[in-house]
Amino acid sequence: MQIEILYFAWVRERIGIPRETVETNATNVHGLVAELSAREERYALAFSDISALRVAVDQDLTDFDATLNGVREVAFFPPMTGG
Amino acid sequence: MLSVQSNAFDPGDILRNFSENVGGAGAVVSFTGIVRDNSGTLDHMLIEHYPGMTEKAISAIMASASKRWNLTACTVIHRHGHLNPNDMIMMVATASSHRVEAFQAADYLMDYLKSRAPFWKKEVSKDGSIWVESKAADEDALNRW
Fold first, then answer.
1. What CATH number has the domain bearing residue A44?
2. Cβ contacts of A70 within 8 Å, gap of 6 or more
3. Does the beta-carbon distance from B114 to A77 stay under 8 Å?
4. Is residue B82 within a helix (H) or strand (E), and if so which, with residue range?
5. Which pLDDT tens digit goes with each residue over A4-25?
6. Could you tell me if residue A37 is inside a domain?
7. Do B118 and A82 touch (CB under 8 A)?
8. Nearest CA in chain A to B89
9. How far apart are CA B103 and CA B93, in angstroms?
């Protein structure tokens, strides 16, 4: 299936692009992270410590166990600093 | 009312307009956040956000506040993009029959906007730039509610 992936803040800078479409068979976010990390060093580096990252699936904040069944959009970013 | 915008806003205008349209509330509370220069070297701040999720997340926080407290009106304005020191970043206004509810709801909105609305601040100085890190205290603040 195809999923749109978005990166924000230093995750975007480390990976070098704001978004991309990927073809994946991952069933949950952990699986997707493993696939991306295996691609290239810059991904491995960005995902080296997922405790420093947050994930949103279809624009809802969730956790890395979240399933990707029917999902269109996944975003990775550091903890938010609004306000 | 919710507005996520790059342009500046006038808190006086917003508050006057808000206070005139509060459906008979007896209390209005507002908070305005301003860009600080802690180090004395800040040139400007860049605020990144996640278009779509930003509106979705803030709307959910506002709905949750309106459900929890008896609010007659509620407004959130949050800027993104390039901001200079002393620029106003964001504003929250709440209206209720009683001041305690208006104060608590505004406090709640601020706590949640800080760590649940998808914004990321980058401080740019002459020496370089740094992403502002979230604080454990910001996450702990959510446990108050």
1. 3.10.20.30
2. none
3. no
4. strand B81-83
5. 999 999 999 999 999 999 999 9
6. yes
7. yes
8. A83
9. 9
